[in-house]
UniProtKB/TrEMBL annotation, chains A, B:
<keyword id="KW-0378">Hydrolase</keyword>
<feature type="domain" description="CMP/dCMP-type deaminase">
    <location>
        <begin position="1"/>
        <end position="117"/>
    </location>
</feature>
<protein>
    <submittedName>
        <fullName>Nucleoside deaminase</fullName>
    </submittedName>
</protein>
<dbReference type="Pfam" id="PF00383">
    <property type="entry name" value="dCMP_cyt_deam_1"/>
</dbReference>
<keyword id="KW-0479">Metal-binding</keyword>
<dbReference type="InterPro" id="IPR016193">
    <property type="entry name" value="Cytidine_deaminase-like"/>
</dbReference>
<dbReference type="GO" id="GO:0005737">
    <property type="term" value="C:cytoplasm"/>
</dbReference>
<dbReference type="GO" id="GO:0055086">
    <property type="term" value="P:nucleobase-containing small molecule metabolic process"/>
</dbReference>
<keyword id="KW-0963">Cytoplasm</keyword>
<dbReference type="GO" id="GO:0008835">
    <property type="term" value="F:diaminohydroxyphosphoribosylaminopyrimidine deaminase activity"/>
</dbReference>
<comment type="pathway">
    <text>Pyrimidine metabolism.</text>
</comment>
<comment type="subunit">
    <text>Homodimer.</text>
</comment>
<dbReference type="GO" id="GO:0046872">
    <property type="term" value="F:metal ion binding"/>
</dbReference>
<keyword id="KW-0862">Zinc</keyword>
<dbReference type="GO" id="GO:0072527">
    <property type="term" value="P:pyrimidine-containing compound metabolic process"/>
</dbReference>
<dbReference type="InterPro" id="IPR002125">
    <property type="entry name" value="CMP_dCMP_dom"/>
</dbReference>
């Protein structure tokens, strides 16, 4: 599967989250050969749980594992510090980012620490988040800890 | 409540985790006046969920909030990158660490980014983790993403 094919899964998750009334960010964790290990989306609204970002949901869905070096975390949006910390701590080898235009997280920091980072600048992802942020700014700022 | 009183709650959580057969790390999130907002412990073993570290469990238990600047995250062990990222992203104002002897995570990075960090070097916490790591090294390394 090429990068766009991998991103498609994360984007489907983002749309699922939106359909549930949630924050439309999706993610998926893949093995190096393209096998899907886990997929998920932000659940702040749906579960009332601020700890479930898209990446953590996909990571959880993949279950307990001993080694993440050959895995790829695919996410519709640049990973925040929380999710970047997840990638760094567990040694996830690669991150594929749908877009970093509406939010710029920690992916440069990950690249500095040896993670292979690709930013796709995907138009669907940009449009989805742009509309969501315009529609629900308070919810968006809550999700990234911006309180001003 | 003084620092040791705050740490007592996190330590109780670590002991709860140990009694459940889990990894003995506990945490609690407090308001500036010492009000407990949420408490929790690592649940990798109990829930088969690699995404629930002690700090994320306490953060989840505190529910959705708009502003974390005046809160204090108390943890029995130096926060890993995942949990340090949580603190940074959500702007948690202070971190109180039981010990950083058996594991050295991201608390210096947090201090560089304006978080008030205190390391207590608490003997109970050091002894608890030292014994756990000696007893179950494979489980411990799994929890911090060390695969070698």
């Amino acid at each position: 599967m090429d990068d766009t094919g991998l991103l498609d899964i994360a984007y489907e998750e983002a749309l699922l989250g939106l359909a549930e009334g949630g924050i439309p960010i999706g993610a998926a964790l893949f093995a190096a050969d393209g096998t899907l290990l886990g997929r998920g989306h932000n659940r702040r609204v749906q579960s009332g749980d601020p700890s479930v970002h898209a990446e953590t949901d996909a990571f959880r869905a993949a279950g307990r594992r001993r080694d993440y070096r050959s895995t790829i975390m695919v996410t519709t949006l640049s990973p925040c510090w929380y999710c970047s910390g997840l990638v760094r701590q567990f040694g996830i080898g690669a991150v594929l980012v749908g877009e970093a235009e509406t939010f710029y997280g920690g992916h440069d920091w990950l690249a500095e620490h040896g993670v292979r980072v690709t930013v796709l600048n995907d138009r669907r992802c940009i449009d989805l988040m742009s509309k969501f942020i315009a529609d629900q700014p308070a919810l968006w700022f809550e999700d990234i800890g911006v309180s001003d």
